[in-house]
């Protein structure tokens, strides 16, 4: 919405809605006091450390993930939450196994690799080790322009550089299939990151149909650039050993827990995160922080005896990393209830210093979110509402028009840690996690507690359709422009 | 020197010295043009990449180090430098071999280690692998305060945090011996770094006399903090496997090359760096950058036909990392010539954006260096002269009163890369390396070309002893203070 419209609308919300939102001010203060001065201080951090240190990485298909899910359900039950349950999901069981790579000519140099999720291994090669020359490309276009004969049997190294995650992710996702189509034996992908200290970044890759499945791993920025320089000087030969295997699917669970609403129990505000992680690092940033501010939101409200008018539902999705498996299952199981889903929020973009809540929905809904976030202006930035509320596990809800939200935070360094061994408690700050907890808990509570539910496309707000104030504002603006113009003409 | 003294001295240098220094202005411009507009553009970067990519890490005692030394001498000869030579040095041959660590209880978790230089391995343990409980301390004092019985047979983990390199280095140097004195079986040291992305930092350690030699390795900040948290919850047991071995000393060489001075050939300005590196990373920052700006300094002057009045000598010390071995040998071999050493400069603190030349010497000498650096004000900061000119390989010269210098540069992120796999070409910038080359080459040339040689303690400057202007300035200041005081009293 433009500043001009905002000015004319004066916020646009009916005073009764504003008053209703503002009636939550004391509750937000209670939540804040509990987190900053009460038992809640550093509780998110302590719980996150206990959980991630105890379990370690929680990859889809592993016993550790399932044990950690059981542990989490026990925690939720011990907090006396309602309807704690695990909804069954079949999840992939891919394991990287032992893996190594070495340059064998023109000289010997070992280097770090991390197989990408769902990659096949090099089991079919002699001795289980692939030896081949490399060919380095900086883009799909460069690969496409090559003769198949020049790529045949080689290891394609993608040295695509960094121009944002959206630029790099397609290479991680599809680099193997693109290389296989040209006859390559394997692919190595520069880690999708803006900065590494020789830190490889794993992630999921997707084999395309009717294309050979070749081994694919990520390498560090340092080695991608090194191999690029080396290949411009002469032939470079690598050995690649990857014991990656995909086993039959395993049983897993999306975790559910609720605080049943006092007035509109059928209407649901969903807050969540994903419980699984990659098998490197401890899954602290991705997505332990999201899991634990969500757990805190539920337990703080429960412990403070704060029951919103609508139902607040925690969902901890399983197997996000390997294809949003839990999220898809959850959507299929609950899409027939979508009319009752007021907003679906996930925190999976880091828990750095909070800026507010990211939101995707109508302009009228955004006005309402902004009014809520004014209650939290001590902990937010600007309007307290970020441009986009999109998040991996809420994508299907967003696609059918359900409002979605996320934790908007200062995550400029997110890709330092993403899918790496550096995703550990060291990068997490206890005070900052408390700030995130305050924002996440308060926003969730108020979204679930307003008499006016957050509108979606075509819905009226507070009994007045959203179009009406917009029409008034546009008419007023038009009149004002004419008035100003005529005065200038004098 | 205080601002007050500077004011009174008005620069302090005799006009003839200033004029002589300023007569080098055109030469500095020729050097600058060659590097920024001529054949020298990005030459340091290209040569550094070719060298470090081709050879890789160059650890003391390795064939690679010796081959790279031969290669470097051939480069120096091909540039027609004078007196290219290798001065023999016996150097340590320590190899880390295979190494790994894993937490075996309360759960399994592999983690990264890097044995510290000169560490013994775990060969004497059952199956070559040590298994023991850990005890975590944050300081030597905490370790000292413990009962020996509580440390006996354990792995002492030092989680000393970061409070500057000077704070952490003693733990890396002496942690093993401190732990051994309390009966520990091994020691793990938090990497001496301000920031890691799960990047361990190796380095040299020193066993103390009459103390058991126990295996010692560094671990990441992430794991030091992890083990600290874990140990506060209950017993933690690790397995440590280190095949580190020290072999008999090997032959190595300090590399020498000169441009013989046109007027005072016996007087020498030494510029240098160390050619060896650790066995992790490519030895690009530590100390490839220093090596190649020094090489550039010599070759640029030679190619431009610029012969200073004094001799300019390149020294590339060997085996710096494992105890300044080359530097000590060079000092022993040449200390009887110390009267002729005008200044000894090493670049071993990074080649980030230059700020000028760091300098340690008398105030009078500093005045002279500042006058030289005014010629380079486009590429420097403030006076262009940093507070300290100390550097590892020049320490013995500094101790006997020879003026020392280094490349003063914006190396705030030096400890991101120091002694890690991330010490690669990725962290180096071609344009920035050109700026360093300009500063290093120009400073070295002018220091070698002034009629007045850089004075040392007790030496006169320009025919007037250094004490005289200082006496005058102090007397003047005293008179001024009395005058001002008496006016105030009126």
TrEMBL record, chains A, B:
Q: What is its main location?
A: endoplasmic reticulum
TM region(s), chain numbering: 466-484
What stretch or stretches form a coiled coil here? none
Which Gene3D superfamilies does UniProt cross-reference here? 3.50.30.30, Zn peptidases
Q: What is this protein called?
A: Carboxypeptidase Q
Q: What quaternary structure, including any partners, is listed in this protein's UniProt entry? A: Homodimer. The monomeric form is inactive while the homodimer is active.
The family annotation for this protein states:
Belongs to the peptidase M28 family.
- Which GO biological-process labels does this protein carry? peptide catabolic process; proteolysis
A cellular-component GO term for this protein: lysosome
Where in or outside the cell it occurs: the entry states: Endoplasmic reticulum; Golgi apparatus; Lysosome; Secreted
Query: Which residues belong to any copy of the Peptidase M28 domain?
Result: 254-440
Q: Which SUPFAM superfamilies match?
A: Zn-dependent exopeptidases
UniProt keyword annotations, A-Z: Carboxypeptidase, Endoplasmic reticulum, Glycoprotein, Golgi apparatus, Hydrolase, Lysosome, Membrane, Metal-binding, Metalloprotease, Protease, Secreted, Signal, Transmembrane, Transmembrane helix, Zinc, Zymogen
**One of the record's GO molecular function terms:** metal ion binding
């Amino acid at each position: 919405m433009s500043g001009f419209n905002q000015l004319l609308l004066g916020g646009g919300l009916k005073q009764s809605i504003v008053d209703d939102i503002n009636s939550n001010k004391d509750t937000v203060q209670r939540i804040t006091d509990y987190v900053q001065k009460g038992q809640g201080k550093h509780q998110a951090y302590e719980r996150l450390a206990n959980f991630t240190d105890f379990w370690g990485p929680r990859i889809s298909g592993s016993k550790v993930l399932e044990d950690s899910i059981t542990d989490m359900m026990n925690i939720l039950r011990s907090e006396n939450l309602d309807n704690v349950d695990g909804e069954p999901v079949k999840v992939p069981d891919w394991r990287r196994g032992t893996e190594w790579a070495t340059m064998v000519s023109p000289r010997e140099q070992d280097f770090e690799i991390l197989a990408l999720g769902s990659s096949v291994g090099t089991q079919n090669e002699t001795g289980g080790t692939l030896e081949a020359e490399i060919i380095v490309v900086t883009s799909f276009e460069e690969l496409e322009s090559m003769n198949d004969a020049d790529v045949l049997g080689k290891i394609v190294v993608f040295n695509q550089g960094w121009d944002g995650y959206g630029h790099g992710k397609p290479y991680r996702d599809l680099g193997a299939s693109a290389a296989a189509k040209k006859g390559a034996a394997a692919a190595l992908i520069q880690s999708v990151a803006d900065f590494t200290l020789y830190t490889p970044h794993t992630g999921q890759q997707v084999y395309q149909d009717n294309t050979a499945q070749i081994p694919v791993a990520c390498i560090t920025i340092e080695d991608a650039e090194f191999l690029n320089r080396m290949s411009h000087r002469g032939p470079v030969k690598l050995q690649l050993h990857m014991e990656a295997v995909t086993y039959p699917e395993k049983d897993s669970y999306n975790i559910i827990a609720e605080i049943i609403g006092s007035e509109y129990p059928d209407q649901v505000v969903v807050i969540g995160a994903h419980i699984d992680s990659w098998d490197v690092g401890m899954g602290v940033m991705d997505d332990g922080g999201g899991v634990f501010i969500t757990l805190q939101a539920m337990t703080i409200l429960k412990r403070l005896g704060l029951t919103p008018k609508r139902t607040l539902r925690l969902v901890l999705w399983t197997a996000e990393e390997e294809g949003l498996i839990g999220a898809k299952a959850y959507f299929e199981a609950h899409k027939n209830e979508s009319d009752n889903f007021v907003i679906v929020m996930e925190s999976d973009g880091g828990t750095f210093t909070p800026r507010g809540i990211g939101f995707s929905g109508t302009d009228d809904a955004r006005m309402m979110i902004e009014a809520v976030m004014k209650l939290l202006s001590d902990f937010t930035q600007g309007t307290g509402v970020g441009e986009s509320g999109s998040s991996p596990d809420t994508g299907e809800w967003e696609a059918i028009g359900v409002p979605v939200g996320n934790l908007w935070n200062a995550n400029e360094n997110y890709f330092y840690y993403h899918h790496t061994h550096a995703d550990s408690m060291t990068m997490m700050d206890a005070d900052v996690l408390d700030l995130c907890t305050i924002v996440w808990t308060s926003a969730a509570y108020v979204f679930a507690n307003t008499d006016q539910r957050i509108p979606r496309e075509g819905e009226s707000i507070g009994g007045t359709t959203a179009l009406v104030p917009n029409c008034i504002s546009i008419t007023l603006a038009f009149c004002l422009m004419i008035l100003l113009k005529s005065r200038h003409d004098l």
